[in-house]
Amino acid sequence: VQLVESGGGLVQPGGSLRLSCEASGFIFNKYTMIWVRQAPGKGLEWVSSQVGNGATTYYADSVRGRLRISRDNRKNTLYLQMNNLRPADTAVYYCAKPNVPFIIKKDPSDVQRGRGTPVTVSS
Predict the structure, then answer these.
(1) What is the pLDDT of residue 21?
(2) Bridge partners, 81 (sequence order)
(3) Average per-residue pLDDT in the chain?
(4) Nearest to 89 by CA among 27, 51, 35
(5) I want to staple 3 with a disulfide (CB 3.0 to 4.6 A). Which of 27, 36, 101, 114 is the partner?
(6) What is the pLDDT of residues 23-41, one digit of tens each?
């Protein structure tokens, strides 16, 4: 399994970023895919999930309405469009895959993660 995130960087408050995650080594469309993040000095926080066929999405209250998860199953790629970013969104963002297919996953436990991409929101 390989998960490779990209798209992070430094952005001013109110700005936008689009994260990508290229997946390989498993049948992508069978898995709910997840974004989790880890802020400096804090534990992993679940951000968003999308089921395998893309029909249903879930968001943490802290990001709902500002972040949008999507996926392209033809390209085995997961995305996170991040709008109206806040300093509290500063973290390393990880793409993650549950250990079991077809389940709905809304927490950061029992998943495989990529190496992450850092996002810094600061003026």
Answers:
(1) 98
(2) 18, 68
(3) 96
(4) 35
(5) 114
(6) 999 999 999 999 999 999 9
103 C-beta neighbours (distance < 10 Å), count: 12
Contact predicate 83/118, CB 8 Å? no
* pLDDT tens digits along 72-109: 999 999 999 999 999 999 999 999 999 999 888 898 88
Tokens of 67: 């972040």
Kindly state the tokens that stand for 8.
Answer: 């992070």
Half-sphere exposure of 9 (CA within 13 A, CB side): 11
In the 3-class helix/strand/coil scheme, how is the chain assigned residue by residue?
Answer: CEEEEECCEEECCCCCEEEEEEEECCCHHHCCEEEEEECCCCCEEEEEEECCCCCCEEECCCCCCCEEEEEECCCCEEEEEECCCCHHHCEEEEEEEECCCCCCCCCCCCEEECCCEEEEECC
Per the document, the length of the chain is 123
Task: Say how far apart CA 81 and CA 101 lie, in whole Å.
Answer: 24
Q: What is the pLDDT of residue 123?
A: 94
